[in-house]
Design brief:
Helix content: under 10%
Shape: globular
Distance between the termini: 53 Å
Structural class: mainly beta
Length: about 500
């Protein structure tokens, strides 16, 4: 007599065969999955969403958090490709969720998207506007609640301006080191020692941090931004005060003894150099294929060079015997301060002067430009707001000492340091004081504003880098990061079908 196990063996075998046939026929589909064209970016970022494993020829809604942003239809294989959505302008910094959900059931997939803004170079980007257009936590109503979140003491004063990228703050110090600190906590991630002071602000592009050192080292360094490992070094023998600008795969910087350099950003190979008279001590700006750099006393010129070849396009001379300082370039106009006490506006294509505005002392500060207004500091102790088209004065704010620091603008607030030891936040429209903080020494570092935080260096020998933020800003960002329950998402019936509808089936 056969056993029970033997009696049921043929039945079990038949079931196994049927299951194998079912799976091999392609009737059963894989679980839905999606991928994003990018994993992080600032508010307003374009995100292309592609997916597979959905039912064939069905509608799929694409959500950012709980907001339905796009409707696509899968192809015969249950796939769709490059559905375009955008991170909302009001999406707070932090982790958010992109969801693709079949319209007729709860079958879907989710991927995280990190909302973050990088202030990656002295200028924010290459051209020198010093404007963060994405800030959405700090504004004229909230900035008065800024508080010190953390501070970090290096072994010397900090003239360097900070760069912020991918959750890390990079800062140079008089103690000959470059520091990488956690942007949220101030915890030290790594230190890189050089042969001299690091006065210029670093630039961080595509996972590489670029910065220069002073005499006697006189080198431009390229480090792995994550580990601090040296990738390459280019030695000029000239001290660096000028922060590098990175654009289109090239690194541009000026050296103190009088050269403008362009290096391959990946290899450090020199493409060209342009000899100028001595004293380039401010960052160049790069816009529309042109490099603009100011040269200090005794040359007092600003030079416009072809960004690919280094060929001189034009030069402009300020008053004899005075410095031309760091330029900004916006909408075809170069804005630059001079030690002849003036702020100049020049035609970016020709170098022809459009207007000038006389302050009461040297203008070392690099202008910030936002919404048709030029913001700049002067050694006459004032911060000025000028009409970008005419140069007429809109307002001025009096500090207690020189304003060497270059303003930063974000969400209708102007941030700037003063040699009186204070960091100021001013209403961009009126110049009204919204907030200030007293550091332990003069501030000629220029602020960076990103992700609801303000970072700035100080000459204070106890604390050299300060980070300010709002207590509730982090809470808002945390609330925005909650992963939506698929069952609670509701489609927007007014959405029109996105194009392209789907990828073509492949046979």
């Amino acid at each position: 007599m056969s056993s029970t196990r033997e009696h049921f063996r043929p039945i079990a075998f038949s079931a196994f065969v049927l299951l194998a046939l079912f799976l091999s026929s392609g009737i059963a589909s894989a679980a839905p999955s999606i991928n994003l064209s990018k994993k992080s970016g600032p508010p307003t970022s374009e995100i292309l969403v592609s997916g597979g494993g959905f039912e064939p020829n069905v509608g799929v809604d694409i959500y950012f958090d709980t907001k339905d942003k796009a409707l696509v239809v899968t192809n015969g294989k249950g796939e769709f490709r490059d559905a375009e959505i955008h991170a909302p302008r009001n999406a707070y910094p932090g982790e958010h969720w992109v969801t693709a959900l079949e319209r007729n059931n709860d079958k879907g997939a989710q991927e995280p998207f990190l909302v973050q803004t990088n202030w990656s170079q002295f200028h924010f980007d290459g051209d020198g506007t010093r404007l963060n257009p994405y800030e959405n936590v700090l504004n004229p109503k909230t900035v008065g609640n800024l508080d010190l979140k953390w501070s970090y003491g290096t072994g010397g004063g900090v003239e360097s301006s900070p760069a912020v990228a991918n959750g890390v703050v990079f800062i140079g110090s008089d103690d000959y080191n470059l520091y990488a600190l956690d942007s949220h906590t101030g915890a030290q991630l790594w230190i890189y020692p050089t042969g001299s002071y690091v006065w210029c602000g670093p630039a961080v592009v595509k996972g590489v941090v670029y910065f220069g050192s002073g005499s006697p080292d006189g080198s431009l360094y390229a480090l792995n931004a994550h580990t601090g490992a040296l990738l390459w070094k280019y030695t000029t023998g000239e001290p660096f005060f000028s922060a590098p600008s990175v654009a289109n795969g090239l690194v541009y910087f000026g050296a103190l003894y009088g050269n403008v350099y362009a290096l391959n950003a990946r290899t450090g190979h020199k493409l060209w150099s342009y000899p100028t008279p001595p004293n380039i001590d401010n960052p160049p700006s790069v816009a529309e294929g042109v490099v603009y750099v100011g040269v200090s006393y005794p040359d007092n010129h600003i030079y416009a060079l072809n960004a690919r070849t280094g060929t001189l396009l034009w030069s402009f001379a300020g008053a004899s015997g005075y410095s031309m300082n760091g330029p900004s370039v916006v909408n075809g106009v170069v804005y630059v301060g001079s030690n002849d006490h003036n702020v100049y506006a020049l035609n970016a294509r020709t170098g022809v002067k459009l207007w000038s505005y006389a302050t009461g002392d040297f203008v070392v500060s690099t202008p910030a430009v936002a919404n048709g207004v030029v913001y700049v500091g002067s050694d006459d102790h004032n911060v000025y707001a000028l009409n970008a088209r005419t140069g007429s004065l809109l307002w001025s704010y009096k500090t207690g000492s020189f304003v060497i620091s270059s303003p930063a603008v974000a969400n209708e607030v102007v941030y700037v340091g003063s040699w009186d030891g204070n960091v100021y936040a001013l209403n961009a429209h009126t110049g009204t004081l919204l907030w200030s903080y007293a550091t332990g020494a003069g501030v000629d570092s220029s602020p960076a504003v990103a992700n609801g935080m303000v970072y700035i260096g100080s000459g204070d020998y106890n604390v050299n880098l300060y980070a300010f933020g709002l207590e509730y800003g982090a809470q808002q960002a945390g609330a925005a990061s909650k992963r939506p329950d698929l069952r609670t998402l509701r489609p927007d019936s007014s959405l029109k079908l996105s194009q392209p509808v789907a990828t073509a089936s492949r046979h």
